[in-house]
Specification:
The chain is α+β, with helices and mostly antiparallel strands. The chain has 4 domains: 1-101, no CATH class; 105-203, Pnp Oxidase, Chain A, CATH 2.30.110.50; 211-293, Phage tail protein beta-alpha-beta fold (3-Layer(bab) Sandwich); 330-382. 23% of the residues lie in helices and 26% in strands. It contains 6 helices and 14 strands. This is Type VI secretion system tip protein VgrG.
Length: 383
Amino acid sequence: MSFVSTGNKSAGNGGPVITTPPITGESGDMSTGSVATGVADAAEQMAEQAAAELFGALPEPSGLVKAAVTAAQAAAAAAGISDIVSAAQDAAASLAAGGPGAHNVTVSGSAVPPQMLLFAGINGSEKLGSLFTYIVQLKTPDTLNLGYVSPAANLPLKPMVGKDLCVNIELDGGGKRHISGLVTAARVVGHEGRSVTYELRMEPWVKLLTHTSDYKAFQNKTVVDILDEVLAEYPYPVEKRLVESYPVRTWQVQYGETDFDFLQRLMQEWGIYWWFEHSEDSHTLVLADAISAHKACPDSPLVEWHQEGLKLDKEFIHTITASERLRTGQWVLDDFDFKKPRSRLANTVADPRETGHANYEHYEWPGDYFDKGEGEMLTRIRM
């Protein structure tokens, strides 16, 4: 996914280089009409040059150039010829931010000082049951006479790490998408002209669970009780959308594992999966065990498919891949209760697919249960 920053795109050092053509008159006396004509001509030349610097050479006639000229003329008429350069630059930059294929993207959060850095790019991935990672690039404003004397060009990196960051993306056709997380790494990746670029790694708050480990015993608790107890140590939002009823476990041990590995093991054992839902203020960990837990996208309840490379006024899917693979056709779970040695605790669930070699069996012993009903649930989850 690619986005266009709202900041001006520079050429060389410090943005479009524009030379104001002189406006001359006879004997220093200039009529109102000749001044207006001179202003318009200057605006047209500078707007074309600014647009060319930002977007490359454009053939004539160009609607982009005409729009930039019109905006520059209006600004020049109101502000005077001395402001024509900035008027042309602002008009071209506005077209860059709002033109076809562009998104208005801003950043917020305690990780970066407000209004000191511009969004430059984002790249990352996110999927169910995994920690997401986004690489966010921010740059100092590319403004003439600012350069490296700007405080933003020499920001300390340590205060950024461990703080909140949110990327706010205005979607085509309305609405916003927020991608929020914690900054887990920060670095300066270089500079271009007068602009310094920072690269921030953004990950979810659950990443904190990978930095601690413990030895704990949990007695007479369900898996949900254990999740609540461990996650309560972290001051971040959690939402449970669980429909199953989970049995009380006599004994469950965290043995030298990180909190993340321990909870991940428990959730995989009991068929609980998770993802994150983002807002501008935070991101919420959502725990689920059924497809009904998923909500429709608020801004795109129906997502259309279109060929890659097309540009529409809304978000769409451009690639869908179908696949099949071999899998176990039957799962058997068994255990032994020394207090009831004659109890038959074996459970079998079969669900072979319509492929070749689909009837192979996976046998697991011990199944870590003494109640047959509990074993049935675990076997169904495994299958």
